[in-house]
Design a protein that fits this description.
The complex is a heterodimer of chains A (166) and B (312). Chain A has helices at residues 2-27, 30-46, 54-75, 97-113, 116-126, 132-139, 143-165, and one strand spanning 80-83. With 166 residues, chain A is mostly helical. The longest helix of chain A has 26 residues, at 2-27. The radius of gyration of chain A is 18 Å and the shape is globular. By secondary structure, chain B is α+β, with helices and mostly antiparallel strands. In chain B, strands 1, 2, 3, 4, 5, 6, 7, 8 and 9 form a nine-stranded antiparallel sheet that branches. Chain B has a four-stranded mixed sheet with strand order 13-10-16-17, with no helix packed on it. Chain B has a four-stranded antiparallel sheet with strand order 12-11-14-15, with no helix packed on it. Classes of the chains: A mainly alpha (166), B alpha+beta (312). Chains A and B meet through helix 1, helix 2, helix 3, strand 1 and helix 4 of A and helix 1, helix 2, strand 14, strand 15 and strand 17 of B.
Protein backbone atom coordinates (compact mmCIF):
# COMPACT_ATOMS: atom_id res chain seq x y z
CA UNK A 1 0.00 0.00 0.00
CA UNK A 2 2.96 2.31 0.64
CA UNK A 3 3.85 2.22 -3.03
CA UNK A 4 0.25 2.89 -3.93
CA UNK A 5 0.10 5.75 -1.45
CA UNK A 6 3.24 7.28 -2.90
CA UNK A 7 1.99 6.98 -6.45
CA UNK A 8 -1.33 8.52 -5.49
CA UNK A 9 0.40 11.43 -3.77
CA UNK A 10 2.47 11.97 -6.89
CA UNK A 11 -0.69 11.77 -9.00
CA UNK A 12 -2.37 14.44 -6.85
CA UNK A 13 0.62 16.74 -7.19
CA UNK A 14 0.77 16.24 -10.94
CA UNK A 15 -2.91 16.68 -11.62
CA UNK A 16 -4.03 19.27 -9.07
CA UNK A 17 -3.61 22.22 -11.43
CA UNK A 18 -5.45 20.65 -14.32
CA UNK A 19 -8.21 19.35 -12.06
CA UNK A 20 -8.44 22.84 -10.55
CA UNK A 21 -8.81 24.45 -13.97
CA UNK A 22 -11.48 22.01 -15.03
CA UNK A 23 -13.42 22.36 -11.78
CA UNK A 24 -13.13 26.15 -11.84
CA UNK A 25 -14.47 26.37 -15.39
CA UNK A 26 -17.42 24.13 -14.60
CA UNK A 27 -18.34 25.33 -11.10
CA UNK A 28 -17.23 28.96 -11.55
CA UNK A 29 -16.73 29.24 -7.82
CA UNK A 30 -13.46 28.79 -5.94
CA UNK A 31 -14.96 27.05 -2.95
CA UNK A 32 -17.04 24.72 -5.06
CA UNK A 33 -14.09 24.00 -7.34
CA UNK A 34 -11.92 23.12 -4.38
CA UNK A 35 -14.62 20.83 -2.96
CA UNK A 36 -15.10 19.17 -6.33
CA UNK A 37 -11.39 18.54 -6.76
CA UNK A 38 -11.11 17.13 -3.25
CA UNK A 39 -14.16 14.93 -3.80
CA UNK A 40 -12.78 13.65 -7.09
CA UNK A 41 -9.43 12.83 -5.54
CA UNK A 42 -11.11 11.08 -2.61
CA UNK A 43 -13.14 8.95 -4.99
CA UNK A 44 -10.05 8.07 -6.99
CA UNK A 45 -8.09 7.27 -3.84
CA UNK A 46 -10.74 4.82 -2.72
CA UNK A 47 -10.42 2.92 -5.99
CA UNK A 48 -6.77 3.64 -6.65
CA UNK A 49 -5.65 0.02 -6.73
CA UNK A 50 -8.37 -1.01 -9.12
CA UNK A 51 -8.53 1.77 -11.68
CA UNK A 52 -8.27 1.12 -15.40
CA UNK A 53 -5.09 1.99 -17.25
CA UNK A 54 -4.10 3.99 -20.31
CA UNK A 55 -6.81 5.89 -22.15
CA UNK A 56 -9.46 4.32 -19.98
CA UNK A 57 -7.75 5.78 -16.94
CA UNK A 58 -7.86 9.28 -18.43
CA UNK A 59 -11.53 8.93 -19.30
CA UNK A 60 -12.26 7.65 -15.81
CA UNK A 61 -10.41 10.57 -14.24
CA UNK A 62 -12.18 13.12 -16.40
CA UNK A 63 -15.50 11.64 -15.55
CA UNK A 64 -14.67 11.64 -11.84
CA UNK A 65 -13.87 15.34 -11.87
CA UNK A 66 -16.87 16.32 -13.97
CA UNK A 67 -19.23 14.23 -11.83
CA UNK A 68 -17.75 15.79 -8.70
CA UNK A 69 -18.34 19.26 -10.15
CA UNK A 70 -21.92 18.51 -11.10
CA UNK A 71 -22.47 16.97 -7.68
CA UNK A 72 -21.16 20.04 -5.90
CA UNK A 73 -23.29 22.32 -8.04
CA UNK A 74 -26.34 20.22 -7.29
CA UNK A 75 -25.70 20.19 -3.55
CA UNK A 76 -24.85 23.83 -3.09
CA UNK A 77 -27.53 26.35 -2.13
CA UNK A 78 -29.11 28.14 -5.02
CA UNK A 79 -26.69 30.99 -4.68
CA UNK A 80 -26.31 33.45 -7.48
CA UNK A 81 -24.05 36.43 -7.93
CA UNK A 82 -25.50 39.48 -9.49
CA UNK A 83 -23.86 42.48 -11.05
CA UNK A 84 -24.68 45.82 -12.55
CA UNK A 85 -26.60 45.47 -15.81
CA UNK A 86 -24.04 47.66 -17.54
CA UNK A 87 -21.58 44.84 -17.15
CA UNK A 88 -23.90 42.38 -18.80
CA UNK A 89 -23.96 43.99 -22.21
CA UNK A 90 -22.58 41.98 -25.08
CA UNK A 91 -19.02 42.71 -25.91
CA UNK A 92 -17.98 43.38 -29.50
CA UNK A 93 -15.65 41.00 -31.29
CA UNK A 94 -12.90 42.02 -33.68
CA UNK A 95 -9.26 41.20 -34.30
CA UNK A 96 -8.37 44.06 -32.00
CA UNK A 97 -6.76 42.80 -28.80
CA UNK A 98 -9.06 44.75 -26.52
CA UNK A 99 -12.07 43.41 -28.32
CA UNK A 100 -10.67 39.91 -28.18
CA UNK A 101 -10.41 40.39 -24.46
CA UNK A 102 -14.03 41.48 -24.38
CA UNK A 103 -14.98 38.42 -26.42
CA UNK A 104 -13.27 36.25 -23.83
CA UNK A 105 -15.32 37.98 -21.16
CA UNK A 106 -18.39 37.19 -23.18
CA UNK A 107 -17.39 33.52 -23.27
CA UNK A 108 -17.09 33.47 -19.50
CA UNK A 109 -20.39 35.28 -19.11
CA UNK A 110 -22.18 32.96 -21.52
CA UNK A 111 -20.76 29.91 -19.78
CA UNK A 112 -22.30 31.20 -16.58
CA UNK A 113 -25.70 31.13 -18.18
CA UNK A 114 -25.44 27.56 -19.44
CA UNK A 115 -26.82 24.65 -17.52
CA UNK A 116 -24.02 22.88 -15.64
CA UNK A 117 -24.01 19.81 -17.84
CA UNK A 118 -23.98 21.94 -20.98
CA UNK A 119 -21.18 24.04 -19.53
CA UNK A 120 -19.25 20.86 -18.76
CA UNK A 121 -19.66 19.75 -22.39
CA UNK A 122 -18.35 23.08 -23.64
CA UNK A 123 -15.39 23.03 -21.29
CA UNK A 124 -14.53 19.46 -22.24
CA UNK A 125 -14.72 20.35 -25.93
CA UNK A 126 -12.91 23.66 -26.06
CA UNK A 127 -10.66 23.53 -23.03
CA UNK A 128 -9.91 19.84 -22.57
CA UNK A 129 -10.05 19.31 -26.36
CA UNK A 130 -12.02 16.09 -26.13
CA UNK A 131 -13.92 14.81 -29.14
CA UNK A 132 -17.66 14.30 -28.94
CA UNK A 133 -17.39 10.60 -28.26
CA UNK A 134 -15.12 11.25 -25.32
CA UNK A 135 -17.42 14.00 -24.04
CA UNK A 136 -20.38 11.65 -24.27
CA UNK A 137 -18.48 9.02 -22.34
CA UNK A 138 -17.46 11.53 -19.70
CA UNK A 139 -20.96 12.94 -19.25
CA UNK A 140 -22.71 9.59 -19.58
CA UNK A 141 -24.89 10.79 -22.42
CA UNK A 142 -25.37 10.08 -26.11
CA UNK A 143 -22.81 11.53 -28.51
CA UNK A 144 -25.62 13.41 -30.24
CA UNK A 145 -26.54 15.00 -26.91
CA UNK A 146 -22.96 16.10 -26.32
CA UNK A 147 -22.81 17.54 -29.81
CA UNK A 148 -26.09 19.34 -29.23
CA UNK A 149 -24.88 20.89 -25.96
CA UNK A 150 -21.81 22.32 -27.65
CA UNK A 151 -23.60 23.37 -30.83
CA UNK A 152 -26.21 25.35 -28.94
CA UNK A 153 -23.55 27.11 -26.91
CA UNK A 154 -21.50 28.10 -29.96
CA UNK A 155 -24.67 29.31 -31.68
CA UNK A 156 -25.48 31.48 -28.66
CA UNK A 157 -21.98 32.92 -28.58
CA UNK A 158 -22.04 33.64 -32.29
CA UNK A 159 -25.36 35.43 -31.92
CA UNK A 160 -24.10 37.54 -29.04
CA UNK A 161 -20.90 38.53 -30.73
CA UNK A 162 -22.81 39.46 -33.86
CA UNK A 163 -25.12 41.61 -31.75
CA UNK A 164 -22.08 43.26 -30.26
CA UNK A 165 -20.83 44.20 -33.71
CA UNK A 166 -24.11 45.88 -34.63
CA UNK B 1 -11.95 24.77 -35.42
CA UNK B 2 -13.87 27.80 -36.73
CA UNK B 3 -13.56 31.38 -35.46
CA UNK B 4 -16.28 31.08 -32.86
CA UNK B 5 -14.79 27.87 -31.51
CA UNK B 6 -11.42 29.60 -31.31
CA UNK B 7 -13.03 32.42 -29.33
CA UNK B 8 -14.52 29.83 -27.00
CA UNK B 9 -11.20 28.08 -26.54
CA UNK B 10 -9.36 31.33 -25.92
CA UNK B 11 -12.01 32.58 -23.50
CA UNK B 12 -11.84 29.39 -21.46
CA UNK B 13 -8.05 29.36 -21.55
CA UNK B 14 -8.00 32.88 -20.21
CA UNK B 15 -10.61 32.14 -17.57
CA UNK B 16 -8.59 29.14 -16.41
CA UNK B 17 -5.45 31.24 -16.24
CA UNK B 18 -7.20 33.70 -13.95
CA UNK B 19 -8.65 31.19 -11.52
CA UNK B 20 -7.82 31.58 -7.86
CA UNK B 21 -5.48 29.13 -6.17
CA UNK B 22 -7.16 25.86 -5.24
CA UNK B 23 -4.79 24.09 -2.90
CA UNK B 24 -5.33 20.37 -2.53
CA UNK B 25 -4.62 18.86 0.85
CA UNK B 26 -3.39 15.35 0.07
CA UNK B 27 -3.55 14.35 3.74
CA UNK B 28 -7.19 15.39 3.89
CA UNK B 29 -7.93 13.45 0.73
CA UNK B 30 -6.30 10.33 2.10
CA UNK B 31 -7.94 10.71 5.50
CA UNK B 32 -11.37 11.08 3.93
CA UNK B 33 -10.72 8.18 1.60
CA UNK B 34 -9.59 5.93 4.43
CA UNK B 35 -12.54 6.98 6.60
CA UNK B 36 -14.96 6.11 3.81
CA UNK B 37 -13.19 2.85 3.11
CA UNK B 38 -11.63 1.45 0.01
CA UNK B 39 -14.11 0.81 -2.74
CA UNK B 40 -13.40 -1.53 -5.60
CA UNK B 41 -14.05 0.11 -8.92
CA UNK B 42 -16.52 -2.65 -9.72
CA UNK B 43 -15.65 -2.25 -13.32
CA UNK B 44 -15.46 -5.42 -15.35
CA UNK B 45 -12.33 -7.29 -14.43
CA UNK B 46 -10.19 -8.88 -17.09
CA UNK B 47 -11.18 -12.27 -15.77
CA UNK B 48 -14.83 -11.31 -16.09
CA UNK B 49 -14.24 -9.92 -19.54
CA UNK B 50 -12.49 -13.12 -20.56
CA UNK B 51 -15.48 -15.15 -19.48
CA UNK B 52 -17.81 -12.77 -21.27
CA UNK B 53 -15.63 -12.83 -24.34
CA UNK B 54 -15.62 -16.60 -24.44
CA UNK B 55 -19.37 -16.67 -24.17
CA UNK B 56 -19.76 -14.07 -26.86
CA UNK B 57 -17.37 -15.84 -29.16
CA UNK B 58 -19.44 -18.94 -28.82
CA UNK B 59 -22.44 -16.83 -29.71
CA UNK B 60 -20.56 -15.47 -32.70
CA UNK B 61 -20.66 -11.83 -31.70
CA UNK B 62 -17.87 -11.60 -29.19
CA UNK B 63 -15.33 -10.07 -31.53
CA UNK B 64 -17.56 -7.12 -32.20
CA UNK B 65 -17.93 -6.34 -28.51
CA UNK B 66 -14.25 -6.66 -27.78
CA UNK B 67 -13.14 -4.42 -30.61
CA UNK B 68 -15.77 -1.74 -30.63
CA UNK B 69 -14.25 1.71 -30.04
CA UNK B 70 -14.87 4.04 -27.17
CA UNK B 71 -15.62 1.48 -24.50
CA UNK B 72 -14.71 3.07 -21.21
CA UNK B 73 -15.97 2.02 -17.80
CA UNK B 74 -18.32 4.46 -16.17
CA UNK B 75 -17.80 5.72 -12.66
CA UNK B 76 -17.66 3.45 -10.84
CA UNK B 77 -19.01 0.81 -13.21
CA UNK B 78 -20.44 0.60 -16.66
CA UNK B 79 -22.26 -2.22 -18.26
CA UNK B 80 -19.88 -3.66 -20.81
CA UNK B 81 -22.77 -4.66 -23.01
CA UNK B 82 -25.30 -1.84 -23.15
CA UNK B 83 -24.92 1.89 -23.70
CA UNK B 84 -26.89 4.17 -21.43
CA UNK B 85 -30.13 5.53 -22.83
CA UNK B 86 -30.53 9.29 -22.66
CA UNK B 87 -33.25 9.95 -20.10
CA UNK B 88 -32.73 13.69 -19.76
CA UNK B 89 -34.55 16.54 -21.39
CA UNK B 90 -37.91 14.77 -21.42
CA UNK B 91 -40.88 14.76 -19.10
CA UNK B 92 -41.88 11.13 -18.76
CA UNK B 93 -45.57 10.58 -18.09
CA UNK B 94 -46.55 7.26 -16.53
CA UNK B 95 -48.82 5.08 -18.66
CA UNK B 96 -48.56 1.83 -16.74
CA UNK B 97 -47.55 1.08 -13.16
CA UNK B 98 -47.21 -2.38 -11.69
CA UNK B 99 -48.70 -3.96 -14.78
CA UNK B 100 -51.83 -1.83 -14.71
CA UNK B 101 -52.74 1.12 -16.89
CA UNK B 102 -52.41 4.43 -15.12
CA UNK B 103 -55.63 5.83 -13.75
CA UNK B 104 -55.87 9.56 -14.13
CA UNK B 105 -56.73 11.46 -11.00
CA UNK B 106 -58.59 14.72 -10.76
CA UNK B 107 -56.22 17.51 -11.71
CA UNK B 108 -53.95 18.53 -8.88
CA UNK B 109 -53.34 22.16 -8.07
CA UNK B 110 -50.63 21.95 -10.72
CA UNK B 111 -53.02 20.58 -13.32
CA UNK B 112 -51.42 17.14 -13.24
CA UNK B 113 -53.34 13.89 -13.65
CA UNK B 114 -50.70 11.16 -13.86
CA UNK B 115 -47.38 10.41 -12.19
CA UNK B 116 -44.35 11.75 -14.03
CA UNK B 117 -40.56 11.91 -13.88
CA UNK B 118 -37.89 14.26 -15.20
CA UNK B 119 -34.22 13.29 -15.21
CA UNK B 120 -31.34 15.71 -15.24
CA UNK B 121 -27.68 14.70 -15.24
CA UNK B 122 -27.71 13.22 -11.76
CA UNK B 123 -31.12 13.67 -10.18
CA UNK B 124 -34.68 12.72 -10.89
CA UNK B 125 -37.73 14.72 -9.88
CA UNK B 126 -41.39 14.27 -10.45
CA UNK B 127 -44.72 13.70 -8.76
CA UNK B 128 -47.11 10.88 -8.02
CA UNK B 129 -48.79 13.38 -9.00
CA UNK B 130 -50.21 14.66 -5.70
CA UNK B 131 -46.82 14.66 -3.96
CA UNK B 132 -43.52 15.75 -5.38
CA UNK B 133 -40.71 13.21 -5.44
CA UNK B 134 -36.99 13.62 -5.92
CA UNK B 135 -33.87 11.51 -5.67
CA UNK B 136 -30.37 10.96 -6.96
CA UNK B 137 -30.01 8.34 -9.63
CA UNK B 138 -27.23 6.34 -11.15
CA UNK B 139 -27.36 5.05 -14.69
CA UNK B 140 -24.74 2.58 -15.79
CA UNK B 141 -25.50 1.02 -19.12
CA UNK B 142 -29.12 0.00 -18.72
CA UNK B 143 -28.79 -0.36 -14.97
CA UNK B 144 -30.72 2.30 -13.11
CA UNK B 145 -30.91 2.84 -9.38
CA UNK B 146 -32.31 5.60 -7.23
CA UNK B 147 -31.02 6.82 -3.89
CA UNK B 148 -31.45 9.61 -1.37
CA UNK B 149 -35.14 10.02 -1.86
CA UNK B 150 -36.15 13.37 -0.45
CA UNK B 151 -38.90 13.86 2.08
CA UNK B 152 -42.25 14.54 0.54
CA UNK B 153 -45.82 15.22 1.55
CA UNK B 154 -48.36 12.44 1.85
CA UNK B 155 -51.39 13.75 0.06
CA UNK B 156 -53.64 10.91 -1.05
CA UNK B 157 -55.44 11.18 -4.38
CA UNK B 158 -55.18 7.58 -5.58
CA UNK B 159 -53.50 5.86 -2.71
CA UNK B 160 -53.24 2.44 -4.30
CA UNK B 161 -51.66 3.79 -7.47
CA UNK B 162 -49.38 6.08 -5.49
CA UNK B 163 -48.12 3.07 -3.53
CA UNK B 164 -47.58 1.11 -6.74
CA UNK B 165 -45.65 4.03 -8.18
CA UNK B 166 -43.42 4.27 -5.11
CA UNK B 167 -42.84 0.50 -5.13
CA UNK B 168 -42.04 0.55 -8.84
CA UNK B 169 -39.35 3.18 -8.32
CA UNK B 170 -37.98 1.28 -5.34
CA UNK B 171 -37.84 -1.99 -7.27
CA UNK B 172 -36.27 -0.50 -10.38
CA UNK B 173 -32.90 -1.91 -11.38
CA UNK B 174 -32.91 -1.45 -15.15
CA UNK B 175 -34.32 0.88 -17.76
CA UNK B 176 -35.12 0.51 -21.43
CA UNK B 177 -35.87 3.36 -23.79
CA UNK B 178 -37.49 2.85 -27.17
CA UNK B 179 -37.99 6.24 -28.77
CA UNK B 180 -40.69 8.03 -26.81
CA UNK B 181 -41.34 5.05 -24.55
CA UNK B 182 -39.55 4.26 -21.35
CA UNK B 183 -39.79 1.08 -19.29
CA UNK B 184 -38.50 0.51 -15.78
CA UNK B 185 -37.69 -3.08 -14.91
CA UNK B 186 -36.99 -4.89 -11.68
CA UNK B 187 -34.20 -7.33 -10.92
CA UNK B 188 -36.19 -10.19 -12.48
CA UNK B 189 -36.59 -8.29 -15.70
CA UNK B 190 -40.29 -7.62 -15.19
CA UNK B 191 -41.59 -4.23 -16.25
CA UNK B 192 -42.67 -2.29 -13.17
CA UNK B 193 -43.62 0.96 -14.91
CA UNK B 194 -43.95 2.37 -18.38
CA UNK B 195 -43.76 6.01 -19.41
CA UNK B 196 -44.35 8.03 -22.54
CA UNK B 197 -42.51 11.21 -23.49
CA UNK B 198 -44.72 14.22 -22.88
CA UNK B 199 -44.11 15.57 -26.34
CA UNK B 200 -45.34 12.31 -27.85
CA UNK B 201 -48.98 11.61 -28.49
CA UNK B 202 -48.92 7.94 -27.65
CA UNK B 203 -50.10 8.54 -24.13
CA UNK B 204 -53.64 9.77 -23.56
CA UNK B 205 -52.33 11.85 -20.70
CA UNK B 206 -49.94 13.62 -23.02
CA UNK B 207 -52.85 15.20 -24.79
CA UNK B 208 -54.48 16.23 -21.56
CA UNK B 209 -51.60 17.70 -19.64
CA UNK B 210 -50.48 21.10 -20.83
CA UNK B 211 -46.75 21.57 -20.99
CA UNK B 212 -47.08 24.81 -19.07
CA UNK B 213 -48.61 25.24 -15.67
CA UNK B 214 -46.99 22.00 -14.53
CA UNK B 215 -44.61 23.65 -12.08
CA UNK B 216 -46.79 25.90 -10.03
CA UNK B 217 -45.20 26.86 -6.78
CA UNK B 218 -45.66 29.54 -4.20
CA UNK B 219 -42.70 31.82 -3.70
CA UNK B 220 -42.09 34.54 -1.20
CA UNK B 221 -39.12 36.87 -1.14
CA UNK B 222 -37.18 37.71 1.99
CA UNK B 223 -34.98 40.77 2.08
CA UNK B 224 -32.08 39.75 4.29
CA UNK B 225 -30.11 42.83 3.28
CA UNK B 226 -29.60 45.94 5.35
CA UNK B 227 -30.88 48.04 2.46
CA UNK B 228 -34.40 48.40 1.16
CA UNK B 229 -35.05 46.52 -2.08
CA UNK B 230 -37.32 47.82 -4.81
CA UNK B 231 -38.38 46.61 -8.23
CA UNK B 232 -37.92 42.99 -7.24
CA UNK B 233 -38.50 40.56 -10.05
CA UNK B 234 -37.82 36.85 -10.47
CA UNK B 235 -37.22 35.31 -13.88
CA UNK B 236 -38.07 31.76 -14.89
CA UNK B 237 -36.88 29.53 -17.69
CA UNK B 238 -40.24 29.53 -19.46
CA UNK B 239 -39.94 33.30 -19.91
CA UNK B 240 -42.40 34.20 -17.18
CA UNK B 241 -41.57 36.73 -14.49
CA UNK B 242 -42.90 37.41 -11.03
CA UNK B 243 -42.82 40.90 -9.60
CA UNK B 244 -42.83 41.57 -5.89
CA UNK B 245 -43.60 44.72 -3.95
CA UNK B 246 -40.83 46.84 -2.45
CA UNK B 247 -39.35 45.19 0.61
CA UNK B 248 -37.83 47.14 3.49
CA UNK B 249 -34.69 45.60 4.99
CA UNK B 250 -35.48 42.47 6.97
CA UNK B 251 -39.01 42.04 5.68
CA UNK B 252 -40.65 39.19 3.81
CA UNK B 253 -43.23 39.41 1.08
CA UNK B 254 -46.49 37.51 0.89
CA UNK B 255 -46.51 34.25 -1.05
CA UNK B 256 -47.21 34.43 -4.72
CA UNK B 257 -48.42 31.40 -6.62
CA UNK B 258 -46.98 31.41 -10.08
CA UNK B 259 -46.64 28.93 -12.89
CA UNK B 260 -42.92 28.52 -13.23
CA UNK B 261 -40.19 26.42 -14.69
CA UNK B 262 -36.72 26.59 -13.08
CA UNK B 263 -35.75 29.90 -11.57
CA UNK B 264 -33.09 31.40 -13.81
CA UNK B 265 -32.54 34.85 -12.42
CA UNK B 266 -33.59 37.79 -10.31
CA UNK B 267 -33.40 41.53 -10.35
CA UNK B 268 -33.74 44.18 -7.68
CA UNK B 269 -32.90 47.81 -7.13
CA UNK B 270 -30.87 49.13 -4.23
CA UNK B 271 -30.41 52.84 -3.80
CA UNK B 272 -31.54 53.51 -7.34
CA UNK B 273 -29.15 50.97 -8.90
CA UNK B 274 -30.61 47.94 -10.58
CA UNK B 275 -28.91 44.58 -10.17
CA UNK B 276 -29.43 41.45 -12.18
CA UNK B 277 -28.63 37.81 -11.65
CA UNK B 278 -25.82 36.63 -13.88
CA UNK B 279 -25.33 32.99 -12.99
CA UNK B 280 -28.57 31.13 -13.60
CA UNK B 281 -26.66 28.05 -14.63
CA UNK B 282 -26.77 26.77 -11.08
CA UNK B 283 -30.53 26.62 -11.17
CA UNK B 284 -31.51 24.00 -13.69
CA UNK B 285 -33.58 21.89 -11.37
CA UNK B 286 -37.33 22.10 -11.82
CA UNK B 287 -39.19 23.47 -8.86
CA UNK B 288 -41.39 20.93 -7.21
CA UNK B 289 -44.78 21.66 -5.80
CA UNK B 290 -44.57 23.59 -2.57
CA UNK B 291 -43.62 26.87 -0.99
CA UNK B 292 -40.21 28.39 -1.54
CA UNK B 293 -38.50 31.32 0.10
CA UNK B 294 -36.20 33.36 -2.06
CA UNK B 295 -33.71 35.23 0.10
CA UNK B 296 -31.87 38.27 -1.19
CA UNK B 297 -28.74 39.58 0.50
CA UNK B 298 -26.96 42.71 -0.61
CA UNK B 299 -23.27 42.95 0.25
CA UNK B 300 -21.34 46.16 0.67
CA UNK B 301 -19.07 45.27 -2.27
CA UNK B 302 -21.97 45.79 -4.61
CA UNK B 303 -22.94 42.17 -4.97
CA UNK B 304 -26.36 40.77 -4.41
CA UNK B 305 -26.74 37.09 -3.68
CA UNK B 306 -29.88 35.08 -4.03
CA UNK B 307 -30.72 31.75 -2.45
CA UNK B 308 -33.81 29.68 -2.93
CA UNK B 309 -34.91 27.23 -0.28
CA UNK B 310 -37.96 25.00 -0.25
CA UNK B 311 -39.92 25.53 2.94
CA UNK B 312 -40.62 22.58 5.17
Amino acid sequence: MEAGHASFTEFVRARSDRFGDLAWLITRNAEDARDAVQDAFVGLYRRWDDLPTGDEFEAYVHRSVVNACLGVIRRRPRSLLVAEPERLRAAPASPDAADALAASDEVWRLCGELKPVQRAAVVLRFWADLDYGEIATTLGCAEATARSHVHRATRQLRSRLNQGRQ
Amino acid sequence: MDDIEKVFAEGLRRAASERPALPVDVDEVVARGEAMGREPARRPTWRWLAVAAAALLVAGVGVWYLNRPGVVPAVPVASPMVSSPDLTGTRWLATEIGGRPVEQVGPTMNGERVPWLVFDATTVSGADPCNGVGADYRLEGDRLSFSNWGAHTDVGCNTTQQQRFEKALTDTTRVQRDGDSLALLDARGSTVARFAAESGRSSPSATILPSVAIHRVAIRVRNAATDDLTQIRLYFADGSTAEFPDLPAGSTSDRRVVSVSPLVGAGASVGGHTYMVTDPGANDDPLLQGVYTCTLVFAAQGQLSLSLQKDG
